[in-house]
Amino acid sequence: MTGAEARARYIDWLARERRAAANTVEAYGRDLDDFLRFLAGHLGEEPDLAALGGLRAADLRAFLAARANAGAGPATRARQLAAIRGFLRHLARTQGLEPLALATIRGPRLKPPVPRALTAEQAKEVASQVGTVHDPERAMRPAEQAARDTALATLLYGCGLRIAEALALEIRDAPLPGSEAGLRVTGKGGKQRVVPVLPAVRQAIAAYLALRPGAAPGDPLFLGARGARLDPAVAQRAMREFRRLAGLPEHATPHALRHSFATHLLGGGADLRAIQELLGHASLSTTQRYTAVDAAALLATWRKAHPRAG
């Protein structure tokens, strides 16, 4: 069996049996074409099944180095390595080839994406206006839906919560006016933290709960149209509808409100360690991503304002 035939069988298996997404099948097909072309030059002949079975970890590292020299970025090389791993593992299972020690091959280190925050004006607009978008076909009363969406957005921006953390809250957790107690949040890994609550957040939640008389302490704080705990997809859909009508950027999502919380605190002079605690990050390096956002905003301001920046 030639390498090209083995590649065709694997791609067919990926599409038909694994039902991989069409984009994945297409990308993996291109990646394996690149790999087989490299091997033809690297080995001096078109690779067959025996040649593929005789590959060493050094051969794969040579391919990744060649792709880097050709200008392929870390994300592309990581995807290509994933395609090759799957291909060689499939051959080991179906053709009895000696499995390659793939665990010893490390892919390129990917830089975590820089958080994309909204401007302060955009975040305030979302928190105050997202409740104006209604779907008349939903079972929930429009006034209650509006108050709920406003309270949720205000909470996400005002306290920097993840959407899952906010939707896990119950009535007994609700921060209401007249109290100065912080909000106890259960984050990833069951780790708890206490975050301070702005008066605007307390008022928005109180306005929402005023439309839910008789709610029990153990009831979910944020309800969906059918009376169950609000689904994150519904909250994300409400944000999509609002940003389309308001002309906000595509990255205006519920999670962007958390990014905005951190970015605006950092821009106002807050300590990085304090922001780490408020966000519930286990590692300071995760929080440090926001310094890149702040630096980018500073550079944009400089370019706009400095007379010699153009």
UniProtKB/TrEMBL annotation:
Transmembrane segments: none
Catalytic machinery residues: 162, 188, 255, 258, 281, 290
Subunit-level organization: Forms a cyclic heterotetrameric complex composed of two molecules of XerC and two molecules of XerD.
Record-stated family: Belongs to the 'phage' integrase family. XerC subfamily.
Pfam (any one): Phage_int_SAM_1
Residue ranges of every copy of the Core-binding (CB) domain listed in the record: 1-92
Domain called Tyr recombinase: residue spans: 113-303
Location(s) in or outside the cell: Cytoplasm
Native species: Paracraurococcus lichenis
Function (record text): Site-specific tyrosine recombinase, which acts by catalyzing the cutting and rejoining of the recombining DNA molecules. The XerC-XerD complex is essential to convert dimers of the bacterial chromosome into monomers to permit their segregation at cell division. It also contributes to the segregational stability of plasmids.
Protein name: Tyrosine recombinase XerC
